[in-house]
């Protein structure tokens, strides 16, 4: 379970970074 959780956290971090680097994605997410 811990491994899966860590993987999910990494994915979330990647998504957040993408949104930060690409403002267009941020608007689409909304």
What's the SSE blueprint?
Elements: H1 2-21, H2 23-29
Features:
2 helices; 30 residues; mainly alpha; single chain; 90% helix; 0% strand
Shape: rod-shaped
Q: What fraction, in percent, of the residue positions are helical?
A: over 70%
Q: Helix/strand/pairing class, anyone?
A: mainly alpha
Number of strands: 0
- Quaternary assembly: single chain
What is the typical, i.e. mean, pLDDT? 79
Describe the structure.
It contains 2 helices and no strands. It has helices spanning 2-21, 23-29. Helix 1 (2-21) packs across helix 2. The longest helix has 20 residues, at 2-21. The protein is rod-shaped. The N and C termini lie far apart (30 Å). The model has no long low-confidence stretch (mean pLDDT 79).
Summarize the structure.
This protein has helices at residues 2-21, 23-29. It is mostly helical and 30 residues long.
